[in-house]
């Protein structure tokens, strides 16, 4: 139940920023993007649980945002990456304000150096530990 809530909350936030959201297996990442801007998230990994009937579950969440970048100049690509990093920060701040989210911790954001598709997309990846309440 917590995993479903977490995935749904992230999908809603990402969609509100105009991204096409895809929840899928890591191996399918390049093939699941059907339009840009795109957001891809593999299933969150269960990290730990505290409590029995009431408590917390912590998940490791990996989220990738991708935008078209093939024909952009270096300056425009850098500006787009900066914008995507700020969007990622904003997304996780909003997620931390969700009803059943206790804390978002250890947020790291990286730019993937290689293009994962033939379209030259720019990809920013965030990893965080998200603790949910049950």
Oligomeric assembly: single chain
Would you tell me the structural class of the helices and strands? alpha+beta
Q: What's the rounded overall pLDDT mean? A: 90
CATH homologous superfamily assignment: Phage minor tail protein U
Count of domain modules: 1
CATH level-3 fold name? Alpha-Beta Plaits
User: What string, H for helix and E for strand, traces the elements in order?
Assistant: HEHEEEHEE
Count of alpha and pi helical runs: 3
CATH architecture: 2-Layer Sandwich
Secondary structure tally: strands: 6
Largest sheet: 6 strands, mixed
Helical percentage: 25-40%
Can you tell me the residue ranges where pLDDT is under 50 for at least 5 consecutive residues? none
Radius of gyration: 15 Å
Strand proportion: 35-45%
Distance between the termini: 9 Å
Name of the top-level CATH class: Alpha Beta
> What best-fitting shape do the alpha-carbon axes yield?
elongated
Features of this protein?
134 residues; alpha+beta; Alpha-Beta Plaits; 31% helix; single chain; 3 helices; six-stranded mixed sheet
Give structural notes:
This protein has a single domain, classed as Phage minor tail protein U (Alpha-Beta Plaits, 2-Layer Sandwich). Strands 1, 2, 3, 4, 5 and 6 form a six-stranded mixed sheet that branches. It is 31% helix and 38% strand. The protein has three helices and six strands. The protein is of the alpha+beta class.
